[in-house]
Write a structure and sequence with these properties.
Length: 201
């Protein structure tokens, strides 16, 4: 179980996310990634190895003020860029700490519904399942949708969710994995460990 950070506010989010991930480096990790809203779309950048590698891939001029970041300690699926987080499927992008123990059963169900997959992680399956519930919800009540997913997922998880059509919000769900939300002045932070944002007032 490694690190999660999230930021929503008025500042450029990428330097804040990278700084937060660096503060969680002490936990160990094998890869890192970020997702952010830009021009109405969700962009994802990932890298195996040090956070510096990820940082070098990111364009400093990207002006986004909402995003999520992750450092992975692989539990399901080998260490490579494809399996690193954030994961995406349909309208949904997520980062996840922990394990979804019944992911193979959920994967079979999703395949029967026409879903396909690009990697080997439990997280990718969780992401696709959230997309499935989202697509099949009439009223698009996100709390209801995530509650449905919670009752489906067996295991431990802290998950931050981005939804393509909702570019001004981040959603979280958790069970037996740490995740904190900090509210600031016109900005909010999410992290798997308060150390990530301990220096923010
Ligand atoms: N089980 C997930 C994976 O293997 C998350 C691991 C983590 O907590 O970093 O990708």
């Amino acid at each position: 179980m490694c690190g999660i950070v999230g930021y929503i506010g008025k500042k450029k989010s990428l330097p804040i996310l990278i700084d937060g991930l660096k503060k969680l480096e002490y936990r160990g990790y094998d890869s890192a990634g970020v997702a952010y809203f830009e021009n109405g779309d969700i962009k994802i950048t990932k890298s195996v190895g040090r956070i510096n590698h990820l940082e070098n891939k990111l364009d400093n001029s990207i002006n986004t003020n909402i995003g999520i970041g992750h450092t992975r300690w692989a539990t399901h699926g080998e260490v490579n860029e494809v399996n690193s987080h954030p994961h995406h499927n349909g309208d949904i992008v997520i980062v996840h700490n922990g394990m979804i123990e019944n992911y193979l059963e959920i994967k079979e169900f999703l395949i029967s519904k026409g879903y396909s997959f690009y990697g080997d992680t439990d997280t990718e399956i969780a992401c696709a399942y959230i997309d499935y519930e989202y697509k099949n919800s009439n009223n698009k009540n996100i709390i209801e949708i995530l509650n449905k997913c919670s009752s489906k997922f067996i295991g431990s998880y802290a998950i931050v969710v981005m939804i393509k059509d909702i570019s001004n919000k981040l959603f979280v769900m958790k069970k037996d994995s740490p995740l904190v939300i900090a509210r600031g002045n016109n900005e909010n932070f999410i992290a798997s460990d308060i150390l990530a944002f301990a220096d923010k007032s």
